Amino acid sequence: MRCLIVGAAKTGTTALLYAVAQAMGGEPVIHFEERIATLPPLAPHTAAKLLFEQERADDIAAFGAGFERRILLVRDPRDNLISRLLYLVASSRVQMDDAPWLRTIAALLQRKQQDPASVALQAFPQLRPPSVLLERTCAANEALAAFAAAHGGDWFILRYEDLVAGRLDALSAYLGLAVRADPKVDPTYQRVTRTKGAGDWRHWFTRDDVAHYRPLLDPLMHALGYADDWTLADPQLITPEHSWVYFERLVRERRQFFDLAPLTLPTPGQQGPATPMRLGKADVVNRLIRKFGFKRYLEYHKFDGSGCFGQVACDSKTQAYIPEHNYLDGANTERLLRTAATVAPHDILDLAQLLERHAGQRFDIIFYDPVHLRPAVDDALRALPALLNPGGVLVVHDCNPEKEAWTSAQRSPGTWCGETYKAFALLRHHNPGLTATVDEDYGVGLIWNNGLVLDYPLADLNYQQFAAQRASYAGLISYHQFQSKTADGDIATLFGAPAAPAPLRFQSAPAAAPRMASQLFWRGPEQDFSEEQALSLPIVLDGSEQVLHFTFPHGVAGIERLRFDPADGILALRLASIELISPKGALMWRWDADGHAGQDWRAVRFCEVDGASLLLTTGSDPQFHPALPGSVRAQLGAGCSLSVVMAPQPPLVGALLAALDQARQGASNE
């Protein structure tokens, strides 16, 4: 017999798969969340599980025709939301590598477990509006309900509540097998198990949550056959094992899976001096505000939602965003689009625009979370004090990177501190008694506006030098030291550390590698290509391999044609790949590198150098017009991205190849 199990994420599909497989006996072939397109021909004795969100409904229905038995598993959307809240953070390496994010969730879970009514669900980062988690939960349940209505006659619909309660007689009769509760699940997937119960939402929702989520979830509950009963438990009880202890175990296992260093999440009550405190930049900023009576706060941070504006408590708060579209990567695209939907364009300012907007104004404290590239960081560190009151503090994030891998001069997915540590160390070198770094959250740098020396030449520092004397270069203090130095409310005490010991060595700043720009244009029917519908990304002409992600912004739709301009001048580059990627990371289309001669390239030549194909732009406006299938064009829109991997060569290489190419062309014409 072949049996197919389909359900949304966190609805008990894993437990049901193994319960059915064990009832089938004879060691059936088990397919665990494999995509339909990748599955081999089905063996006669097979149990398979699909997640509803990962496939098209029509494909699931067609695929299910190859099975004698088909089970659709549904769950109360409220319980589904709680389960996703606690588990789905583990699916992302980027989130597992975000220590402040994990600490925030762990702290909220501890408070929620101790007093369920004191923390609303919207307090959790995953559910703060606009919430992708909530949108996906609603979309999955809505699609599941529509599928059940359309295909219910051909599928056995099982409720999760019946599964966990052991009410499996009807399922057993449908299968002709004795299905037992509590199957033996492969240890690889044990991490998905939490309560093995139903109705948990009654202990997690607050009255405010009921008012907020009821209009959203009521239609889904009705469509899935659940009663309109929103009665909360009295008393509400959440066990540690089903909340923060579960989360801590999940974090430990998944960080190990992703080859990340262990991260200690303190349990409630652990506040002693011997316990490492896990804090974030907002904790440092808020303590400065409280202890020194600061009233006016400015936040200037990356345009990817990574600031702490919402967590800062200050009488007057202002924020602005650094234009960051040139530095996006796939892992940040979704978060950027959420931010872009809520941010006024006039709040996206480069440094010059920021200084012009606030000319004549002064703040007590500025938090700066840069795009970590020099000399932009150096320029900001020397310019932002002009917006501070005398005695104010400039707070800078990412001044103490723990790993060299996090300090690349090009943005990389996951943890990335870039070159900020170099810029802060150089400013500290000229202002040793006015700077310090709190050793938390990748290093929270502090600069006291008290006679700063800001007119100094740029110089360089390598990571090995920094790591050997990081305490001196960064002026490191622990959080406990920070607490002690700020306890009496005298800011001079905080910055009263002795000057950094010699020798601290800096090298002459290397000349910046020359740059050009690549552009992606798009247009709809009966439109021309224009700068208004284009994205531009810088390319460094140093021969290194670079990955460009052109991500279509919010509101883009109806694309009929694309145009990729690899450079804005004469240039030689090795072009490894061009791919279109969906918002969920799926490959939509790939450039055929071997068939480039028959494609629509303009002002471009291809030549062979050392057995590798090299692209040579021969004018100021080289272009590639990809011939995309209609099915791909129909899917293009906001969140999709064109990913280009290439290695632009130094200008001299391009000039020489252009001259040789011109000479060959002249010879052939003769």
TrEMBL record:
Q: What is this protein called?
A: Sulfotransferase domain-containing protein
Native organism: Massilia rubra
